[in-house]
Amino acid sequence: MNDLIARIREAAARGDLLESSARNVTGLLESGASPVALASIRELLDAGDWAELNDRFYRTLAFGTGGLRGRSIGKKVTEAERGTPLPDGRPQFACTGTNALNDFNITRAARGLAEYVLEWWAGAGRAGRPAIVLAHDTRHFSRDFAELCARVISDSGCDVHLFEAARSTPELSFAVRHLGAQAGVVLTASHNPPHDNGFKCYFGDGAQVVEPHASGIIAKVNVLATDRYEPVPGDRRGVVHRVGAEVDAAYMERLETLLLDPDLVRSQRGLKIVFSSIHGTGGVIVRPMLERLGFPFVTVPEQEVQDGRFPTVKSPNPENAEALTLALALAEREGADLVLATDPDCDRMGAAVRTAAGRMELLSGNQIGSLLAHYRITKLIEQGVITEANRARAVLIKTFVTTDLQKAIAERHGVRCVETLTGFKYIGEKLTKYERAIPEALRAGYAGRSEAETRRLRLDHSSFYVCGGEESYGYSGADFVRDKDGNGAVVMFAEVAAWAKSRGLTLDALLDEVYATYGFHLEKNGSLTFEGAEGSAKIRRLADSYAANPPTEVDGAAVVARRDFARETIRDVEGDLIPKEAMLMVELSDGRRFAVRPSGTEPKIKYYLFARREPPAGRAFDPAELAALKPAVGAALDRLWEWLQADATRRLEA
After folding, report:
1. Which of 40, 154, 156, 190 is catalytic?
2. What's residue 654's pLDDT?
């Protein structure tokens, strides 16, 4: 080991290794690296693969507000990591590195979370042991990491509820409250490439952690420099309980309540759906739910297999047309009306619809969310759930970078629209707030009450969450899950399709009806990707540049308003303070606007572009008007994106 440390220091002195990389490699070696880690570091040193070493070690993967996310398979897989060939083609061991998602960082995360929960539990004066729920998706190492977490957390003195096999992120959110646990973790990297994995953390309300718990957990995790630890004495260790079917049944019972008009669904037997889980967890719940609710559907056989390689797609992201290639081909063979697909942990859902012209067309996350909002608000008013007397208590929640069409729909019907930062944890935080606003004597046992009971409590005493979501294909329609829910989204959007069919409309025609009524809104998302240590520095430079030198003119249009979410004090419509975040929102004199922010989970800086045209006063757009303005608005957004890309290049070269 001493020879390795000497070689590392020499490489840093030559400038081959970053100082931070050398420090982190040395620290790992001195704290007692595993034989696989030792062999991997030696192999990379022998090969002089400084870029790979820097990517793996330039930082210690920091536990953020959502947890951890990083590569579990390196760009270069060492022979030690490859180990014994496995049937799924993955390496036997996860990527060595302080900046990788591996046993070292998983152990740190699990220990830190357990320590924080134990302190919080004791501080509340509670007896017995707290419990943490663990779930995982179908990614490489997800099951291994879940079993490791279970061991570390129980060794630390917490009980564990470990799902017996792969389950979705929204079911984990549900299970935390259903099982009365104090926290939860799902091992997933959502729709990231196969080489990534992650540790996503939830608290006792079933939502991703927010303040003050986020800072407390972060402090506990990030202070840990080693994965070595001593278990608590045997009589204080937690018990690991295996869970599965019972939680599935309870979750599905609540999902069924998302259906607003079961008779409508039963009457539309002509609706044909193709569903794909893209090798993920979606099939566990979606297939039996569609059968239970009476939706005619077929699945994509090749993609039903749970496989962390995601072998039939380039990326397991249902917002991309490429990921739906097999589903779209099946839809053509079957003459299907609708394709629905979920990502590996089933918190996101993408959709393609058969248009009035007979083509299959991919919908954006903004369009899906807007159709959900239009249908659910319309139907709840029609059913007398939302009334003149209580509609001030009805609320739709969306993120700042989600289409304003949803705000227009809500406000037209007198429903409050609340905007949050990007991240469903902020929507989950709102749902917890609304629950706590119910008088304490009335909300006892809230999580176990029926949907009808909790709806009545919210409408009478607090705020009734109609639906909500974010442009990145995440939606929800009730508060029994405190995160975006691909299982629930499939149920809700299939009902929208049935409603459209009952009115003789295709979904694109229904969307045009929405545009004609509330205004034509168009959005375009873009991103610039910068990977590794050098890429991370570029993203920081760009973000700092926008904050220090915001634009005053963009694509020939004057900037008329700016909001810097990192520096300004901003409150939402309910008066709640918006947390600080590196995001800039810019409004232009011609009605276009854009937002720019670094991604919290991917090596990207993201751009969100918006444009809209309001219908003439007192009437809706007629079909000819709507058809004429669509290409003009689209061209205006294309020009804006070209300008922003060129501007980013100028800023990096300055």
Report:
1. 190
2. 79
pLDDT at 31: 85
**125-149 pLDDT, tens digit each:** 898 999 999 999 999 999 999 999 9
For residues 17 and 22, what is the distance between their CA atoms, to the nearest angstrom? 6
Q: From the CB of residue 18, how many other CB atoms can be counted at a distance below 10 Å?
A: 19
Q: Give start-end residues of each CATH 3.40.120.10 domain in the chain.
A: 105-243, 244-518
Structure-token pair, residue 453: 């009971």
CA pair distance 11, 185, nearest whole angstrom: 38
Given a cut of 50, the residues of the chain with pLDDT beneath it are: none
The two beta strands, 183-187 and 196-203, are antiparallel
**CA atoms of 500 and 555, how far apart (whole Å):** 39
Residues whose CB falls within 8 Å of the CB of residue 500, separated by 6 or more in sequence, listed in order: 506, 507, 509, 510
Q: Which CATH superfamily is domain 105-243 in?
A: Alpha-D-Glucose-1,6-Bisphosphate, subunit A, domain 3 (3.40.120.10)
Closest C-alpha to 463, from 356, 576, 550, 350? 576
Q: 3-state SS of 592-646?
A: CEEEEEECCCCCEEEEEEEEEECCCCCCCCCHHHHHHHHHHHHHHHHHHHHHHHH
Is 267 labeled as catalytic in the residue annotation?
no
pLDDT of residue 32: 83
How far is Cα 2 from Cα 42, in angstroms, rounded to an integer?
12
Contact 166, 138 (CB under 8 A): yes
Match 């119910």 to its residue by tokens.
438
d(CA 239, CA 444): 27
pLDDT at 43: 96
Distance in angstroms (rounded) separating the CA atoms of residues 206 and 247: 14
Look at residues 546, 528, 547, 526 and name the one whose alpha carbon lies nearest to residue 536. 528
Predicted local confidence at residue 196, as pLDDT: 96
pTM of the model: 0.94
For the domain bounded by 519-653, which CATH number is listed? 3.30.310
The pLDDT of residue 627:
94
